[in-house]
Amino acid sequence: MSRGENAGNKPRGASPQAEHEFVLFPLPLPDLKQSVKPDVVVQYASVALFVQRAQAQLSTFLVTEWNAAAVAELCVRLDGLPLAIELAAAHVKLFTPQALLARLSQGLHMLKSEIRTTPERQRTLNYNDPMEFMICLMLRDSGFFGISQ
Q1: Within 13 Å and on the Cβ side, how many CA atoms surround 143?
Q2: Is the pTM of this model over 0.90?
Q3: Is residue 19 a part of any domain in this protein?
Q4: Any idea what the Cα angle at residue 60 is, between residues 86 and 147, rounded to 5°?
Q5: Please, are residues 53 and 89 in contact by the beta-carbon 8 Å criterion?
Q6: Which of 46, 115, 61, 124 is nearest to 92 (CA)?
Q7: Whole domain around residue 50: which residue ranges?
C-alpha cells in the first residue's frame, strides 16, 4: 500500500460498508434584498434546517416577524453550510437569533485572553470563516477552551 492510499479517509481494517461519504453543498439561501417575511424565508432549505435544529433545542422556537430577518441573515452569513447552521441553531436556548447574529459579527474577539504573560499569537483567535467561528463558539460554550460565559 502506498503512503497516500489510506489518506485518513477510512480507519485501517474498516470494511468499505462501514463508512459512507456524503457530499454536502451549501443550502439555498434567502435573498436579503427581498422581503424577509417569516412565511417566505422558512421555504429556504437553510432556514428550514435552522428552524428544525432550533426546535430540537427549544420546542417553542418559531420564525416570526421579530426574528425572521436575523434568522435569514444568520443563514446567509454562515454561507448555507449545514454544519455551521446546526451549530448556530444549537444556541437558541441561550441566545435569540439577533444575539447570535451579533456574536457572529463580533468574530472571536470574545475568546481573547487578557493574560499579558502569553505571546499575542496565543491571546487571540482570528477566524474569518463563519463555520470555524461557530465551531469555536460551540467548543467555548462546552468549556473546551477552559473559559465560559
Answers
A1: 0
A2: no
A3: no
A4: 50
A5: yes
A6: 61
A7: 25-141
